[in-house]
Amino acid sequence: MAGEGGSAAAAAAGLLNGGTGEGPGGKRARLGSAPHSPPAGNRVTVVLGAQWGDEGKGKVVDLLSLDADLVCRCQGGNNAGHTVVVDTVEYNFHLLPSGVINHNATSFIGNGVVIHLPGLFEEAEKNLKRGSGLEGWETRTVISDRAHLVFNFHQAVDGIQEQQRQQQAGKNLGTTKKGIGPAYASKASRTGLRICDLLADFNEFSKKFKALAQHYKASYPTLNINTEAELEQLKIYAEKIRPLVKDGVYFMYQALHGPPKKILVEGANAALLDIDFGTYPFVTSSNCTVGGVCTGLGIPPHYIGKVYGVVKAYTTRVGVGTFPTEQNNEIGETLQARGREFGVTTGRKRRCGWLDLVLVKYAHRINGFSA
Question: Which of 14, 23, 199, 358 has the fewest Cβ atoms within 10 angstroms?
């Protein structure tokens, strides 16, 4: 056994040192001592929230996307809300990247995003009525084939779960009831369905859809699911999105290794809402810190360039959960009124308080903000 272990160690050292297993002068090289040069290819600029969201990421992305070639969403769903004002016209985005307003850029919805198809097309229609900024959005939007789907019953379950929390503990999580948590739960339990499932064999998709619906129906007896009606709706949406869908991994690989491109990633939610690092359990259901960029788009970490941490001069959060600097008084009301602090997705008033630098420092430790 000792001989086998020695052989394995020698083989590992050999791989690290170009196959020789030795460093300069015949010495065995230590792990990580081999010289490393940055890989060739395009770098990704990332914009992340450094508080509890609503810091103004959409505005920052809108500015940076003026000369971007590709703008990506890597996580979350239509629980996010980003407001962009162009030529006095206000656009509200939830699933579409804020850079979709730039007609010269491609918008990419990555595999880490959960997509409610009715919500996506409703969002597009609403913004088309507001102004010409969204014209032709389908021709410059790409959706990853691996992105999971949010169904209408996911949204209904989200609402039921909130009611149950309120009844049992007297405190809910304050979700947007957009079905994001239940959809990520389906994904984690390996019962979820993806865009690629929808666009493949629809009969097979229907069987899996019915099985998933039945599972939720058994868990929540009051749940009302019109399975056939939703499947008919999904069949129509399948044909509408088919031209937009690509192999997301290959698409990003080409973007990174092809001609020079400016690639921008728009984070949804924020560091203190991260499922791992946020104020759990009052958090979102995805990784909205920098690691979510890699897993949500399928890119290696060394292609990440600047990481913008967006902070506003005070602190807000929507819904319930800890908030050390909250001002439940006239000051908080003034911040709320002057900042016009209403949730883009829910319209709820945001709780307001002083800038919390301890919180921002914590967010920086996780994300390594460089801009």
Answer: 358
215 an active-site residue? Answer: no
Candidates 288, 230, 277, 224; CA nearest to 79 is 288
Of how many residues is the chain composed?
Answer: 371
Taking the chain (371 residues) in runs of 10, the rounded mean pLDDT of each run is 43 42 51 62 96 91 92 91 83 89 94 96 92 90 98 90 72 75 95 98 97 94 92 96 98 96 96 97 95 97 97 93 96 94 80 97 98 92
Q: What angle do CA 319, 124, 51 make, to 5 degrees?
A: 30
Q: Whose structure tokens read 């020695």?
A: 6
Active-site residue, from 54, 62, 158, 356: 54
Q: Using alpha carbons, select from 301, 243, 292, 274 the residue that is nearest to residue 362.
A: 274
Which of these, 65, 115, 117, lies nearest to 91 by C-alpha position? 65
Q: Which residues pair with 82 in a beta bridge?
A: 93
- Catalytic residue selected from 82, 94, 116, 148: 82
Q: What CA–CA distance (Å, rounded) separates 14 from 311? A: 46
pTM as predicted: 0.86
Tell the residue number behind the tokens 């990440």, with chain if given: 304
